[in-house]
Design goal:
The structure holds two protein chains of two kinds. Chain A has two domains: 2-47 and 286-413, no CATH class; 54-282, no CATH class. Chain A contains twelve helices and 13 strands. Chain A has helices spanning 2-15, 17-45, 78-85, 126-129, 142-146, 156-163, 232-247, 266-274, 284-326, 331-367, 379-405, 409-413; strands spanning 57-60, 63-66, 71-74, 94-101, 104-110, 113-122, 134-137, 151-155, 172-175, 178-186, 200-203, 220-226, 258-261. The longest helix of chain A is centred in the C-terminal third of the chain and has 43 residues, at 284-326. The two termini of chain A are 26 Å apart. Chain B has one domain: 3-Layer(aba) Sandwich (Rossmann fold), CATH 3.40.50. Chain B has seven helices and ten strands. Chain B has a six-stranded mixed sheet, with helices on both faces. Classes of the chains: A alpha+beta, B alpha/beta.
Amino acid sequence: MIKNYLKVALKVLARRKFFTFISLFGISITLLVLMVMAAIFDHSLAPHSPETRSDETLGIYQLTMRGKENTQNSDPGYYFLDRYARSLAKLPGVERFSIVSTPQTAVSYLGGKKIESQMRRADGELWKIMEFEFLEGGPFTPEDESGARFVAVISETSRERFFGGQPALGRTIEADGQRFRVVGVVRDVPTLRFSSAADIWVPISTSKSKLYREQWMGGFNGLILASDEDHFPAIKAELDARLREAERNLPDPKTFQTLTAGADTLFEAHVRKVSPGNTEVIYPGRAKAVLFLLMLLFMLLPTLNLVNINLSRILDRASEIGVRKAFGASSRTLVGQFVVENLVLTLIGSLAGLVLAGLVLSALNASGFLPYARLALNYRVFLYGLAMAVFFGILSGVYPAWRMSKLHPVQALRGRSV
Amino acid sequence: MIHLDQVSKMYRTDRIETTALDNINLAVEKGEFVSIMGPSGCGKSTLLNLMGLLDEPSKGKVELDGVAINGQGDRALARVRNERIGFIFQQFHLVSDLSVADNVEIPLLYRKMSNKERRKAALSALDRVGLSSRTNHFPTQLSGGQQQRVAIARAIVGKPRILLADEPTGNLDSQMGDEIMDILEGLNSEGTTIVMVTHDPRLAERTNRTVRLFDGRQVQ
């Protein structure tokens, strides 16, 4: 039966070339945009090198101090993370805890040429939470951090900038007025990965000033690697308890009385960043619903277009509908047939969309618009695309199919539509 | 086999009510070959549609094999049509996008059969109407007579006990019309009950009896 449906579907598409082109154009462009967006989301949020274990990692990316009249909101400071969050590593199911700075612009001069790099300062644990792809050497160690050794891991682009792409191991770079010996070179990290992207990584203890050790707010993130996400609720609850303890020791209790921070997944962290005003409570479920709604709205126009085109085909197909009804097709069977036909159309359109998306992603990668991005149509994006195509096919097919199936057989055989 | 008891059919458009059939009482028994005659617009096709369960009467009762079909749901009626009734239309109504064999298979799509069984039955039906050499052709590649023979193959492929033919020779020349009539007579002689609408008295004479309609009423 399906074979018969497919034959008819393909013939109908071939018969009305202009309508088919319009339909396929709408479907492919819609799915192209959705797939490119899905690829960007995937590249930002899904496990990718070096954040291959991002599904098991929580981050403390934001800290809010509140008083009756004042609110201060920024990245957490090293003191807060070291004093109150580091001990989360002792919780059951927590494998690692790392403190790493947010990227800061570090200026270097090489032969009179100015080089601007994004530099992070990290402890030695970072390399055990993230799986960077080392092209040369290896990471610096906790001993390098505790011994304040001036060592650095640089990206391949930094190697290109500083050493013309030549081997960099053991050589020295100057960054932000300090000199570091290169101990490792890693593959570039896309800037979309906001918890790991940088050009240069050096030990925190090499900071010019030691003031960071006393700061509650600013400049650092805490990363918590759990053995699996089942431990997330306990980690979040424990962080809350630590925050209550920290509130009792705030440096300026007259101005600030409460502390808020979250141990967030990457998605939650993005939601927290874009949540207006009150960032104490975030609603990732609502955010997902909003994203889904936006996707639906984006699909609405091409869906209505396709519904309209499908309805106009009723007249063309009236005789066939009449015959099928006369020979025993129920309305429900006909709905199934037309939905299958529409799915064929949308799957062909989505295949075209997939090819176009591949081209657009290659162009985006090459353009440098998203630095170091390696956007790709991996199996996850393909599955998103497939799911969207099926959803789109059903959404735009059910109503016309229902209308078609409701044609009265006698009217249909006379070649009249509804 | 088919019993119509005081059947009327009215069509309403806005405020105008048109009576297409008025108080029809008709019984078609098993193995009969009945023709329905009458001038254009007298309700012949409407009567055939009611007998074929494609339409419902406004009044009266339609029985098939002693079971009243009034009020049965869409799925139940579809199943009865599929299993017991075959249709032949004046306009052939072949699906132009499908090959001859695929067209003939249509009624079998709604039964639980394998592809192989369906194809075998379709080829057998096409052989019955003398078109086994045209299975992979498309309707537009056939003459009118051949198209009508494909339509007959489609009507008989599911081995229905009743064939309803609405002016099956109306679009054909007399020679082709005779060929189609020969096939129908052959099917009738094998036990198929046939009800045929026709304008042609010559064809009507070849049936067991003729029902005449005039202005929606049965006159004979």
